[in-house]
Amino acid sequence: MVDWDERYRRGEHILVEPLPLLVRVADTLAPGCALDLACGTGRHAIFLAERGWQVRAVDASRVGIELMLARARERGVSVDARIADLERGEFIIEPEAYDLICVCYYLQRDLFPQIRAGTRIGGIVVAVIHLIDDSAEAQPMNPAFLLRPGEPQSRVSGLGDPARL
Fold first, then answer.
1. Which residues, 6+ apart, have CB-to-CB distance to 49 below 8 Å?
2. Which of its termini does the chain have fewer beta carbons within 10 Å around, N or C?
């Protein structure tokens, strides 16, 4: 297991700008309740909170959560932060609780049913997950954390319009 606390202490992987996909999607939605899974240092949670969303953010890294909360205070926003290891089931996604669920650069296949159940009718899921890529330019990555061709469609069936995901 990667020691994310140590990485964050060293200043690694501390990003502040949200992914353009999330920005585009959020710009089309009225603020509601959002969940940021595997939030790291909270760039997406803070972005959403600044736009009026009520945000719950979950990550296993205590250091990542502390960095997010400090930045949220600096920006004058509130985020409901939870330190929980998703792989150990320390956080359960409440059914029909969220208008927006985002999960970026984190793949835990057994969470997809909870994500589906946790999204309110009319809600949306923004998932940014690496795909298996055999091209020479792709960096080697652990295939366990990569989606296979066609897998995104099978994983999100029942979530709504896949073009909006």
1. 55, 72, 75, 77, 78, 79
2. N
Burial of residue 120 (number of CB atoms within 10 Å: 0-12, 13-18, 19+): middle
- Hey, which residues does 35 pair with through a beta bridge? 56, 101
Q: Are 46 and 102 in contact (CB under 8 A)?
A: no
Torsion sign (Cα): 116, 118, 123, 125:
negative
Instruction: Give the side-chain half-sphere CA count within 13 A for 72.
Output: 27
- In eight-state DSSP terms, residue 151 is H
Backbone angles phi, psi at 66, to 5 degrees: -60, -45
Rounded Cα–Cα distance for residues 3 and 162 (Å): 34
Strand partners, 125: 101
Q: Within a 10 A sphere around the Cβ of 157, how many other Cβ atoms?
A: 11
Please name every residue paired with 128 in a beta bridge, in sequence order, or none if there are none.
104
